Amino acid sequence: MSHETKALFIIFGATGDLAHRKLYPAIYELYKKGYLSKSFAVIGTARREWSDDYFQEVVRDSIADGIESEEHAKEFSTHFRYQSHNVKDTAHYVTLKKLADELDEEYGLEGNRIFYLSMSPSFFGTITSHLKAQSLATDEGFNRVVIEKPFGTDFESSKELNDEINSSFAEDQLYRIDHYLGKEMVQNILALRFSNPLLENSWNKETIANFQVTLSEDLGVEERGEYYDKSGALRDMVQNHVLQVVGMLTMNRPDSFTPEDVRREKLAIIESLKTPVVTQDETTDFVRGQYSDSSDQKVKAYRNEDKVDPESLTETFVAGQITIDTDEWRDVPVYVRTGKRMAEKLSRIDIVFKETTSDLFNDSPSTLTIFINPDQGVELVINNKKIGPGMDLEPMTLASLRSKETLKNSPEAYEKLILDVLNGDETHFAHWGEVAESWKYVDQIRQTWDSFEDHIPFYPALSVGPAEANQLLERNGHHWVYTAE
Ligand code: BG6
After folding, report:
1. Among 227, 229, 241, 318, which residue has the most ligand 1 atoms within 8 Å of its CB, making it the best to mutate?
2. What is the pTM of this model?
3. Edge-to-edge strand order for the sheet containing 80-84?
4. Are residues 96 and 193 in the same domain?
């Protein structure tokens, strides 16, 4: 049986979509696997008035797909209590503390607490200062605060938020979730790179022509129009997931997998990103777009989505050329793109190697693809002699994709990250330094875009994005490996 950790979770935003879709199923998986057993409890809080019974029903509903038995699910849900809560009302924290202390006693939790903030960041400061002032943070056990994104909307607001939180909790108590860092294949980047001298010794400017990161989604903004219209793809995806993946791809070998070593190397990359050129002509390093309706008009345009301004200039697609301004990577462009309502739901990284310099062959560049989602695995395309006379070449694909069965049984990002929180392992969480530097980088792009006239390029829904994203690579004689065909 796995090592069991004792802890009380207090989830702010317990009636929300994320809690239902991700958190309860993740906690249940940890329970199934024995990481949580008899000694854990969860208090769900939110504004709504729910009874414990109703909350437990909601929790059972959220895990319905993966339960061992009705009995097991029921037993699991008895660990959940609900407390309606107004985050601004001090009296509510007093009641919450009472309930927390009772559960601590009942389940023998030794004062270990995980405060999970899954709600609007505008409340993070209020909540953390009350947790401290009303002594919900204990003296005897561990106190860890898990923070969902968005962590601010620019550098200034994120710094303010961070200062507010830091006045009650120290950096080593904070776990800023970037769920991409919990994904198996994102973590695997470090294993692939640093456990195979074959790859490690090729991972340099002599051998790599460019990196390509594609995080593409086929869905639109769904019911998140209100948030998204203020955010856009740059803040929603580039500031966090995209830059974290770029860090993993290009960071130096860490001395160990401790949070300090991994984060130091990743930070060094984010700190050395060159200021991007942002213009309205082909000299620009970043382009954007917004989806219009699909060519068959079955999918509506972004501007017609619920809670979106009908004249919105918000970008639902971003592509960019990132330059890492170090001797190693300066000449190796890192191309990134992400968007909503694209042709497919898929996250992948393509590493394009250089062609040979001799005249021996008419060779094509080899490519290594790391499939993150929904496929997981690796594919290497190299040159191979065509059968027959002469020395003509053809591409040969060496691929290993994880089976459906393996994927079904492998832990989801949230399960892995919550287990890390229980174990006090911060390696796969974003450190403040990384968050700050990432904001500074994207702020430069945002500010220039905001200064442009009322114009944004459109791309048809369910396509690969605007043509500008191709021009970005073509100017360097490159092209996207993934073209959705
Ligand atoms: C979230 C963004 O952080 O990541 C969403 O806010 C986006 O807009 C999601 O849909 C994508 O995550 P994944 O794991 O589905 O690629």
Report:
1. 241
2. 0.97
3. 80-84, 40-46, 7-12, 113-117, 143-147, 174-176
4. no
